[in-house]
What we know:
The protein is an alpha+beta fold and 127 residues long.
Amino acid sequence: MKKILFTDKAPAPIGPYNQAVLSGNTLYTSGQIAINPATGDLVLDSIEIETKQVMENMKAVLESAGMTFENVVKSTIFISNMNEFATINSVYGSYFNEKTAPARETVQVACLPKNVNVEISMIAVAN
């Protein structure tokens, strides 16, 4: 059975999807982009600030399921410019313990929703 999760500490969905779905002890998150949940505005001041907003949104989604980044087993990062990989990776990495970091792929794409530069989704498992 699946449970739909929602938190007002992350951006509300902008389409026919939910922030996350919990199935058993596994959480599947939708991709997060750099929308400030309090204002609904995009946060695109720099790639560092944009990535931090994405990760803070993801943190809120994980917390709505009683989880943290330590529960994440798989991440997918979509970026519009592979030349920004090192900067995105640095911010992303600051949210994880390197020894227990999840599996991950990073993919450059032609365009992301609202023309953002980075989108991240995750799968997490409760202990």
